[in-house]
Amino acid sequence: MKKNVLWLVILVLVLSVSLSSVVLAGEKSLKIIHYVNGTLGDKSFFDSAHRGLEMVIKEFGVIGRTIEGGYDPAAWEPDIQQLSEGDWDIVIIGTWQLVEITEKIASQHPEKKFIIYDTTVDYSKGNLENVYSILYKQNEGSFLVGALAALVTSSNLPLANPEKTIGFLGGMDIPVIVDFKVGYIQGAHYIDPEVNVLVSYVGAFNDPAKGKELVLAQYDQGADISFNVAAESGLGLLGAAKEKKRYAIGVDSDQFLLFKDSDPEKASYIVTSMMKNVDNSIYRAIDLYLKGELKFGVAEGLGIEEGGVGVADNENFKELIPEDFREKIKEIEEKILAGEIVVDTVF
Question: Residues 145-169: pLDDT tens digits?
C-alpha cells in the first residue's frame, strides 16, 4: 500500500514538472519594435528613445529592436506597414511626422499595440483604441533653462558678456519646437524682461553644418548662451559654442555626459541640458503595460511632476553655475508644481 502511494506521489511530481515545462515552453516573450524616422547618433532625442528601449530589454527581458528609417519620407509608411505585419506585439513610433501614418496603420491592425511619443494621434477619427500617445510638457522644462540662460547672461560668469542676449536654435518651425521656444522666452523674461532672445530655425533636424552657422551668427550678435532644440542639427550649436568659447544648453539627453569623454572641451561649455526624458517615458509605458495598467486610446502629457522633463543636474552644472542660481531654478520648479507659475504653451 505504501509502495503504491509512493509511486502515486512520484507520478504526480513527474506530471507537475511536465506540465510546468509545457507552460514555460508556451510562454511568449513580449516583442517590441521601435521605429525612428531618422537615424541614431543625434546625442539627444532618438538616442534617448533608443536608450529607453535598451532599459526595457535589460529590465524586463523582452525582445526589442530599433529600426533607423532614415530621412526619406517615402520610406516611412511601407517600413511601418511591414513592421506592423511582422511578429511584433508593440510598435513604438516617434515624432509628429508619423501621426497620419500611425493613424492609418494602427486602425488596420487592431490586434497590435502602438505607442507614439512626442505627439498624439487624433482619437476622434475612431478605431485607435490600440494607440497610446506620449506628450511631453517641454514648455515647462524650457521655462527652467530660459530662466537659467537669463541668469547667466546677466551674470559675471567668465564667458558672459555685458549684453543681455541669449539664443535659441530650433530644428523646424513646428508646434512642438515652438512650444520649447515659448517656455524658454517666458522663463528668461520671468528673470529679466529686458533679456533679448535671438531665434533661429535650421529647417531640418539633420543639418549640423547649418545649425553651427546660425549659432555662430547668434554669438557674433552678442549671445553668450544658446539653447539647442534641433536634434542632430543641434550638434552644430555645440560645435559653435566650442569654437566661440560661449555657453550652450543641450536638449533631450544630458549632452554634457554624452561628450564628457569623447570631446571634453566641447562638453565643458554645456552648462546643462533640458531633459525630455523620452527614455524614462518609454520605460514607464512598458512597465505599466506589463502590469496591465497602460491605458490605450488616450494621450498622456508628462511634465515636471511626472518626471517627463527637467534640468540635468551634473558635475558641470554644479561647477559652472553658482549655487544661488541653482537654488533659484529649484524654487521656480517648485512654483510651477504648485501652480504659482503657469507656463504658456502653443497647444
Answer: 999 999 999 999 999 999 999 999 9
Whether residues 151 and 128 fall in one domain: no
DSSP assignment letter at 61: -
Of the candidates 249, 245, 94, which has an alpha carbon nearest to the alpha carbon of residue 169? 249
Spatial separation of the C-alpha atoms in residues 98 and 119, rounded to whole Å: 9
Q: Which of 305, 314, 309, 312 is nearest to 335 (CA)?
A: 305
Question: How far from the centroid of its chain's Cα atoms is residue 246's Cα?
Answer: 25
CB 237 within 8 A of CB 206: no
- pTM of the entire structure? 0.82
Q: What is the CATH number of the domain that holds 125?
A: 3.40.50.2300
Phi-psi region of 39 (alpha: psi -120 to 50; beta: other; left: phi over 0): beta
pLDDT digits (tens, 9 = 90+) for 193-213: 999 999 999 999 999 999 999
